[in-house]
Design goal:
The structure is a single chain. The strands form three sheets. Strands 1-2-8-5-3 form a five-stranded mixed sheet. The chain has a domain of 154 residues: Uridine Diphospho-n-acetylenolpyruvylglucosamine Reductase, domain 2, CATH 3.30.43. By secondary structure, it is α+β, with helices and mostly antiparallel strands. 54% of the residues lie in helices and 9% in strands. α7 runs antiparallel to α8. Belongs to the cytochrome P450 family.
Length: 515
C-alpha cells in the first residue's frame, strides 16, 4: 500500500480502535459496578460462543462441578447461542417440574430451526392428551407389540457385527437408532409409498446431524445440510401421511375438538395407540393441521427415537466395554433368564433383568444420554439467595444434579470430580451397578429423561431397546475396546463421540454362549 493509502487508512483504524476500546470499557463497567440484581456467572465470556469452547474442551463433570464450587447451586451458562441458568437445587426445581411458575422450552436455536415451533409440552391440555396416547403406545400391550420388530432389526445388525468380529461403536449406534426409528417406530410404510428406505435414512441422517451446533447456516455447514434435507423429506412424507392425518381430523371433529376425548378413545382402542397417533393429536390440538404439519410429526418421531437411542446405546456400550466384571454378571443373569423363560427376547423377559437394568442406569448416571431439560420462568424463582426473574431460562442439568446426589456425594469440594463420578481415575469405584439394587444405596438424583410431569415417555422404550440389544450380545460375546482409553479421548459435548480411529470394539466369543 502506498503512503497516501496508508495515511487514509490511519483515521479509520484509529476510529475502530477507539470504538472497540469504548465498548470494552463500558462492558467492564457494566460487569464490575455494584448491582443487587447481579446473577451468578463469569464476568467475561466470549461473544456469541459464551462458554462453548471451555465446556467442549473440559471434562463436563469437572467443568460443572467447578462452576458449582465457585457460584453455588445456580449459575449462568452460555452455549451455542443461548444463555441459561443451571440450577442444581431439587427443592427449587420441584414446582417447575410440575409446570408451576415455568413452562417447558428448548432454547437451542438449531434445534428450533429444524424441528419448528411445535412445542407440545408448553401447553398443559395439549401435553396431557399427547402424553396419554404416547404412554399407551409405549407401555404394556403397546410396547409388547413393538418388541418383535425391534428384535428383528437388532438381529440383522448383530449378525453383521458377528461376521466382522467387531463393532464401530458410534456408527453402529447411529445406524441402529435410525433403523429402529424409521423401520419400527415412524408409522410410515415406506416401500408401499414408493420411498426408498436407504434414501430416506440418508436424508434423515443429514437432518439429525444439524440439530445441535452453532446457528449458522453457512454453505456446506451441518445446519445448511439439515435444512435442505428437511425440505426433501417433507416433500415425500406429505403424501405418505395424508390418509392417517385425515382419519385423525375426522376423529377430532367427531369429538367436538376435545384433545382429552380423542386421547381417551385412542388410548383405549383395541387397535393399540401408536407414536404417530400421539404426535398427530398433539399437532392437531395445537392448531397445526396442514399436510406439512402432518409430515413434521414423522420427523419428530424419528428424531425422538433415533437420537435418544444412539446416545444411550453408545454411552452404555462404552462404559460396559470397560468392565469385564459387570459383563460377566450380566451374562450370569442371562443364563438364569433363559433357564426360566427360554431364549426368546420379549417384553416380559426384558422386564426380568434387574442387574442389566441397574447397569444401564449406572452408565446413564455417569455418562447421561441427555443433559436434562429446560424451563422458561413465568414468575420469580428463588434459589438460595439468588432471585431469578421471569423470562429466565432454567437448566436442570442431569450431570450436575447426579454429581450432587445426596446419597452418593459426601460434600467434599476439595476434589475436581467427586469419586462416585470419577470414571477416568476411579472406574471400578465409580461404575457400581450394585448401588441400584438396594434402597439404602440407590441414587436419588436421576434426571437423564427429565422429571415430574415431563418425564420422558420414551424412557421405557429406550431402556428396553438398550437392554434387549445388550442381552442379545452379551449372551454370546465379551466386549473389549480396541483403544482402552477411548472414552477418555472422546468428545463429550454436545454429545459423546469418539476421536477418529478410536471407536472400535471387539466381540470376543464366549466359551459357553447362552442359547
Amino acid at each position: 500500500m502506498g503512503e497516501q493509502g496508508a495515511a487514509a487508512g490511519t483515521p479509520l483504524a484509529l476510529a475502530a480502535t477507539l470504538l472497540a476500546g469504548t465498548i470494552l470499557v463500558f462492558y467492564i463497567y457494566q460487569q464490575l459496578k455494584p448491582s443487587k440484581s447481579r446473577l451468578p456467572g463469569p464476568l467475561f465470556s466470549w461473544p456469541f460462543l459464551g462458554d462453548t469452547i471451555e465446556f467442549a474442551t473440559t471434562d463436563p463433570t469437572k467443568f460443572l462441578f467447578g462452576r458449582f464450587k465457585r457460584y453455588g447451586r445456580v449459575f449462568r451458562l452460555s452455549l451455542l447461542g443461548f444463555t441459561a441458568y443451571v440450577t442444581a437445587d431439587p427443592e427449587a426445581l420441584r414446582p417447575l417440574l410440575a409446570d408451576e411458575g415455568g413452562h417447558f422450552t428448548i432454547p437451542v436455536q438449531t434445534f428450533t430451526a429444524l424441528m419448528g415451533a411445535y412445542n407440545l409440552q408448553a401447553h398443559k391440555e395439549v401435553h396431557a392428551a399427547w402424553r396419554k396416547v404416547l404412554m399407551a403406545a409405549l407401555t404394556g400391550s403397546g410396547m409388547a407389540k413393538l418388541v418383535p420388530g425391534v428384535v428383528a432389526v437388532m438381529g440383522r445388525h448383530v449378525e453383521g457385527w458377528a461376521q466382522a468380529g467387531r463393532v464401530e461403536l458410534y456408527e453402529a449406534a447411529r445406524t441402529l437408532g435410525l433403523d429402529l426409528a424409521v423401520d419400527v417406530l415412524s408409522g410410515v410404510k415406506l416401500e408401499e409409498r414408493g420411498i426408498q428406505p436407504a434414501w430416506l435414512k440418508s436424508r434423515m441422517a443429514d437432518f439429525l446431524g444439524g440439530l445441535y451446533g452453532l446457528p449458522l447456516a453457512l454453505p456446506g455447514s451441518p445446519l445448511a445440510k439439515a435444512l435442505a434435507a428437511k425440505e426433501e423429506l417433507l416433500r415425500v412424507l406429505v403424501p405418505a401421511v395424508e390418509g392417517r392425518q385425515q382419519e385423525l381430523l375426522k376423529l377430532w371433529e367427531d369429538n367436538d375438538r376435545s384433545a382429552a376425548a380423542v386421547a381417551t378413545k385412542l388410548a383405549s382402542s383395541p387397535e393399540t395407540a401408536t407414536i404417530a397417533d400421539a404426535n398427530l393429536l398433539g399437532f392437531t390440538a395445537r392448531g397445526c393441521t396442514t399436510p406439512r404439519d402432518a409430515a413434521m410429526t414423522v420427523l419428530h418421531a424419528v428424531m425422538g427415537a433415533a437420537d435418544t437411542t444412539r446416545f444411550a446405546l453408545f454411552n452404555t456400550w462404552a462404559i460396559l466395554a470397560m468392565s469385564p466384571r459387570v459383563q460377566d454378571l450380566i451374562y450370569e443373569e442371562q443364563k438364569k433368564v433363559v433357564a426360566e423363560n427360554g431364549p426368546e427376547l420379549t417384553y416380559k423377559t426384558a422386564m426380568s433383568m434387574p442387574y442389566l437394568d441397574a447397569a444401564f442406569k449406572e452408565a446413564m448416571r455417569l455418562l447421561p444420554a441427555s443433559a436434562g431439560g429446560f424451563r422458561m420462568l413465568t414468575k420469580e424463582l428463588r434459589v438460595g439467595d439468588v432471585l431469578l426473574p421471569p423470562g429466565t431460562i432454567i437448566w436442570f442439568h442431569a450431570l450436575l444434579l447426579q454429581t450432587l446426589d445426596p446419597v452418593l456425594w459426601d460434600g467434599d469440594t476439595s476434589v475436581d470430580v467427586p469419586v462416585h463420578m470419577d470414571w477416568r481415575n476411579n472406574f471400578e469405584g465409580a461404575f457400581r451397578p450394585e448401588r441400584w439394587l438396594s434402597e439404602e444405596t440407590k441414587p436419588r438424583s436421576y434426571y437423564i429423561f427429565g422429571q415430574g410431569a415431563h418425564l420422558c415417555a420414551g424412557m421405557v422404550l429406550v431402556t428396553l431397546e438398550v437392554k434387549l440389544l445388550l442381552a442379545m450380545v452379551l449372551r454370546k460375546w465379551r466386549l473389549q475396546l480396541e483403544v482402552p482409553d477411548m472414552l477418555a479421548r472422546a468428545e463429550l459435548f454436545p454429545y459423546t463421540k469418539p476421536a477418529k480411529g478410536t471407536g472400535g470394539m471387539r466381540l470376543i466369543a464366549r466359551e459357553q454362549p447362552v442359547a
